[in-house]
Amino acid sequence: MNDREIFINMINDNLNEMNGTIDCLYITTSICAKNKLLNRLRRNMSNINLMLQGLRNGESMSSPPSIAERLFTMQDLSRYNGRDGNPAYIAVNGVVYDVTSNAAWGGATHFGLSAGTDVTSQFASCHAGQPILSKLKVVGKLVE
Amino acid sequence: MNKVNNPCLNYSTRLKTASVLVHKAIEAIKHKDIQKRNLIWLELTGCSGNIISLLNGANPDFKSLASQMVNFIYDNSLMAAEGEAAMEKLYSMTGRDYILAVEGAVSTKDNGLYNIIGRWKGHPVTAYEVIKEFGEQAAYVIAVGTCASDGGISAARPNPAGCIGIQDMLDRKVIKLPGCPCHPDWFMGTLAYVMLFGEPETDNRQRPLMFYSTLIHDICPRRPYFDQGIFASKLGEKTCMFKLGCRGPVTRVDCPIRKWNDRVNWPIGDNTPCIGCAMFGFPDQMEPFISYDTT
After folding, report:
1. Which chain B residues touch A48 with a CB distance below 8 Å?
2. Under 8 Å CB-to-CB from A46, ≥6 apart: which residues?
3. How high is the ipTM of this complex?
4. Residues B159 and B240 in one domain
5. Which of A22, A118, B117, B180 could staple B277 via S-S, CB 3.0–4.6 A?
6. The domain containing residue B261 runs over which residues?
7. pLDDT the model gives residue B52
8. Closest partner CB to B249 (pick from A86, A103, A108)
9. pTM to 2 decimals?
């Protein structure tokens, strides 16, 4: 199953869950239960938003394959710190990603990390197993 | 300033969570369905901002909590007793049923010498030993504010007193209510829930889902600006502050709904970015709080 199919399946799962939640909302009278159900709907919407972003990134990546072949040294990468007109790039496991418009990278920083750096070890310690990288736009590869 | 009343069902329903729970708990006590519980509030290594915030609660307010919901046994800022007489009240709870609320981190360096909360039988009592003794015995432990939850400002670099969150001291579950300070609703709602139904459903960081399930970014009134790519370049502009380093996209809590100071306003409503005060890693990992010249 390719990335696109995985995203579409996940969107469908979320939509099915939302349907069930809305059915429950019609019958519940408890304000606490209602609150939980509304929270769940919000979470589903957030998930769908992420999946859509992943789908869009997948489409933009497949059109110009040459961009992903661009090579970066650590010095090159450090210029892409998200400041003064430069986009914000980070490297994970040798791949360089664009996080300029990624919401979690407000001000080109994220939990004490700055764009323009290799964040492989920090990514492994915080986001191992999470489908995050596939939603980011690849811009090239990191070379020694 | 934002409007206090929002017609959105999501907002209006969630806004009532704490008051509904507190009123339910008070009614249940009146009808003798449940009993008032003893509450101990410890102020450890911090600024006492959480107890001040609690006093600022409105519907539910502190008076309802202290007079109708719990027996407020000990809090060094609020109680009339002082010195050994105050400590006597605290130690009178040994072996009895109580709920423990803790604000502030625990200073661990040199056996906790840098935070002494009182004297008992002539000996200084450190935050370190009091949390060990009362934390293990409590029916429930609630960490109020970011310092108690994850170390917070007290544990910020270079952390000279070796401060840690209370979960790291205790071999039991702690319900965490991070926020600098903790919103009065978050504490009173959680306390009422605990009294009515037991432990609330929490996320993997032990925060009650009823308050901490949603990213600020997902319910931010400025979200449409983000989606359209319209960003503020300096403070005071009314658009999305993502480029200024807003931490709303990584902070899970319901500030946009509940707001502060009697639900009048909140940071983003007042044109300053969210600084992620309710998120683990605050403040070190949330810095810089403001960034300019971002692409």
Report:
1. none
2. B214, B215, B218
3. 0.85
4. no
5. B180
6. 216-286
7. 97
8. A103
9. 0.85
